[in-house]
C-alpha cells in the first residue's frame, strides 16, 4: 500500500495502473485507505473517436492547422469578444 500525500502522487499512482495492475490501495492521511479498481483501459479513446467520426477528425485537424498558422485567440481575447447577449435564447 502506498501512502499518498498530494494530488500529484495520487494521479501518478492512478497513471501507473494497467490491465495487469488493475487493483490498488492507497492510504491518504486524514481520510483513510482507498481501494481502486481499473475496470476498463482505453488509452486510444481520442484516436478511436476521431476514426469513427470524420467530422470530429476534420475539426481537430482544422484546429491544428489554425494553431500552426497563428490563427488563434488568447483566452483573454476570447472573453473580451463575447457578451451575455451571446447566451440568450
Number of strands: 3
Describe the main β-sheet briefly. Answer: 3 strands, mixed
Which overall shape is indicated by the principal axes computed on the Cα atoms?
A: extended
Estimate the strand proportion: 15-25%
The number of domains is: 2
Radius of gyration from the CA trace? 21 Å
Question: What is the typical, i.e. mean, pLDDT?
Answer: 88
Order of helices and strands: EHEEHHH
Lateral strand order in the biggest sheet: 1-2-3
Structural class: alpha+beta
Helix content: 40-55%
Instruction: Tell me the span between the first and last alpha carbons.
Output: 53 Å
The low-confidence runs, each spanning 5 or more residues with pLDDT under 50, are: none
Number of alpha- plus pi-helical segments: 4
What do you see in this structure?
There is one protein chain. This protein is of the alpha+beta class. It has 2 domains: 2-37, no CATH class; 45-82, no CATH class. The chain has 4 helices and 3 strands, in the order E-H-E-E-H-H-H. It has a 3-stranded mixed β-sheet, with no helix packed on it. Strand 1, helix 1 and strand 2 form a beta-alpha-beta unit. Helix 2 crosses helix 3. The radius of gyration is 21 Å and the shape is extended. The termini are far apart.
Secondary-structure blueprint:
Blueprint: E1 2-3, H1 7-15, E2 23-28, E3 32-37, H2 45-52, H3 54-69, H4 75-81
Notable features of this structure?
single chain, 89 residues, 45% helix, alpha+beta
What's the short version?
It is built from 4 helices and 3 strands; from the N terminus they run E-H-E-E-H-H-H. The protein is α+β, with helices and mostly antiparallel strands. A hairpin with a 3-residue loop joins strand 2 and strand 3 (32-37).
